Amino acid sequence: MAADDQTMTLEQSVQAAVELDAPLNERLEVVARAVRRLNGDFADAVDRLVSRLQEQGAGAMAPAPGDLMPAFLLPDDSGKLIGLADLLKQGPAVIIFQRGHWCPYCRLNAIGIVEVQEEIAALGGQVAVIMPERRKFAKAMKATVGAQFPFLTDMDNGYALSLNLAIWVGAEMERLMGVGYDLPSYQGNSSWFLPIPATFIVGTDGRITERFVDPDYRRRMDIDDLIMALRRAR
Fold it and tell me: What CATH number is attached to the domain comprising 62?
């Protein structure tokens, strides 16, 4: 089945992107094209959201390379508290912020990490995904993608807010997203705040060596770039 088949549903397009042998951002583009084909009004609203965030410099004030990564202590999908210090005792860390289990771009991003999780482990790297969702949804996401790394719950986007990564989706997106996604149930609040998807590579000294922060949630750090960054952080 071709990745750009015009008869595909969104879920079929996501599955086609999963099966595509291509860099992560090319796979994500398959989903973005499908969304635009299936719901042009929604895609246009996303474009407006992204433009607003870019004009406001959203994410620009997040911790940068050379900065100490602020500490966290968050529950994983089993309820165990995991801290940044715990991860760094074992090797450099890859800290990934995602929007939620419902986000197909986040699912593809997580699958891309899963595909190289053994290579990451061989480099001594530790991965943690942070999402603003209740534990049962983080647990479901981990099981869906087959991850061996933890999915941590950042209730009310507290940690993301401290890193200048949390944004309000806006009234237009709240209305459009509310048709298919029950974020208040997923998150346990009705704020309609989400983290800007971001990836931080953190050396064992606690300092950020590289980061990827983009208010356009349809783009993420490519997996090859992540692996190279992790090699440099060792």
Answer: 3.40.30.10
